[in-house]
Amino acid sequence: MSNNLPKVSIGLPVYNGDKFIKAALDSLLAQTFEDFELIISDNASTDNTEEICRAYAAQDKRIRYYRNQSNLGCSHNFNRVFELSVGEYFKWAAHDDLHAPDMLMKCVEVLDNNPSVVLCHSQVSFIDENGDFLQNYKIKLNTDSEKPHKRFHELLTKHLCYQTYGVIRASTLRKIPLMGGYGTADGILLLRIGLLGQFYEIPEYLFFARSHSQQSLSMFFPNYHLLANNQSQFSSSILPDFYAYTVWFDSAKKGKLLFPHWRIVWEYMLSVWLFKLSFYQRIRCHLSIYQQLHGREYLLLKDLLKAAQIIWQVWQHPSKQQRQIIPLQKELL
User: Do 96 and 189 meet the contact criterion of CB atoms below 8 Å apart?
Assistant: First the structure.
């Protein structure tokens, strides 16, 4: 890394990642583009993650290791690595994924030469626990459109948000709310980045997403490979459990009354008003939201029924703390 600020900051949030993190770190440190810092934020791991990361940090001055005193949840830790960064460009990295040696170099070259591009990513391949090839990720989105409402429409469609692990202009990320504590928060983040500029996909497989039983996709979205094969195969029957996903993103919400699908729709609508768009562009964005919601309104009803069930259970069998809340609930009802 040069004496000045690094060109790229890589943020790696991790929790109990000792099984794969060595390979992930080796993959990042082997990049042909070397002007970067690597920020690791350990979410109070209970395995050997801390020992491994401190050993790597002692060997490479580009690495900065931080450890949270308690587990902050995914979204807080995800945001923290960006808040600690200083580079012109920023990239999130997962503790279990791998990168081709020239991924950073090629992404930086695109961003340096194309000021309209705010995020550069590559094509994605899936690998298994041993690093062996499984399949290619085939969903293609028209996020290089010059029109923000068209990029918004594309990013509303069902995809697995791997663009999040591309290289992003830090100045763009500073203009938007970061990762929220709710289901599909990474998708909302990409929507907002897309409203501010174009994406560019390098037509090469330079990013390797590892599939294994401990990852969030496998836990909450076990059939995600069906969507990875072909977008048209998507059906509501393979939707993830957004209740569990919300708690994973923000552990402080465990045990609280949640309306995850209502929250997602609200965040969609809020995104349209965060940035300067023409009246026509806003209308087109809202039409896209309607198209996305059409046929899945029952999910909003599901939230209401789930909330009613929780309130009824608490009412019938309250804990000591909940007994103090119930009189207020009765007044409201």
Answer: no
Where helices occur in the chain by DSSP H, the ranges are 21-29, 49-59, 74-83, 103-113, 148-156, 170-173, 185-196, 216-220, 224-229, 242-249, 260-272, 279-293, 298-316, 320-332
Question: Are the CB atoms for 44 and 70 separated by under 8 Å?
Answer: yes
Q: Which residues of the chain fall short of a pLDDT of 50?
A: 1-2, 232-233, 321, 324-333
pLDDT tens column, 114-134: 999 999 999 999 999 999 999
Q: How many CB atoms lie within 10 A of CB 112?
A: 13
Q: How far apart are CA 115 and CA 329, in angstroms?
A: 53
d(CA 196, CA 318): 47
Question: In this structure, how many other beta carbons lie within 10 angstroms of the beta carbon of residue 122?
Answer: 25
- What is the DSSP secondary-structure string of 114-156? -TTEEEEEEEEEEE-TTS-EEEE------TT-SSHHHHHHHHH
For 226, other C-beta atoms within 10 Å of its C-beta total 14
Inter-CA distances, 37 with 5, 34, 59, 134, 254, Å: 9, 9, 13, 31, 34
Which pLDDT tens digit goes with each residue over 53-65?
A: 999 999 999 999 9
DSSP code of residue 174: T
Q: What angle do CA 249, 224, 216 make, to 5 degrees?
A: 25
pTM assigned to the model: 0.86
**H or E element in which residue 167 lies:** strand 167-169
